Amino acid sequence: MFDIGVPELLLILVIGLVFFGPGKLPELGKAIGKSLREFKNASEEDQKAAGGKEINGNEEQKIIDVKEEQKK
């Protein structure tokens, strides 16, 4: 998707250290990761609601687990 190499990643890391400092950088990374995860989950839910047929292995297993719980 993106053609980002090691030099570009190092530059981004240095800029992040300058702006946010070493203490806040892990918190910032955690917040960004959580936001991306929530965005991905929301877009997958929208796709399911729209009748999309793409389901990955993890989602398929979750569906199976839910159906088994409903049978109990």
How would you describe the overall organization of this protein?
This protein is mostly helical. The chain has one domain (6-71). It has 2 helices and no strands. It starts with 5 loop residues before the first helix and ends with a helix. The model has no long low-confidence stretch (mean pLDDT 82). Keywords: Cell membrane, Membrane, Protein transport, Translocation, Transmembrane, Transmembrane helix, Transport. The chain crosses the membrane at residues 6-25. Forms a complex with TatC. Belongs to the TatA/E family.
SSE order and pairing:
Elements: H1 6-49, H2 57-71
Helix/sheet category: mainly alpha
Return the average pLDDT rounded to an integer.
Answer: 82
Quaternary structure = single chain
The total of beta strands comes to 0
The description of the largest β-sheet is:
none
Count of DSSP-assigned helices: 2
**How many individual domains?**
1
Distance between the termini: 44 Å
Shape summary: elongated
| Radius of gyration based on Cα positions | 19 Å
Helix content: over 70%
SSE order, one letter for each helix or strand: HH
User: Which spans of ≥5 residues are poorly predicted at pLDDT below 50?
Assistant: none
> What portion of the residues fall into strands of 2 or more residues?
under 5%
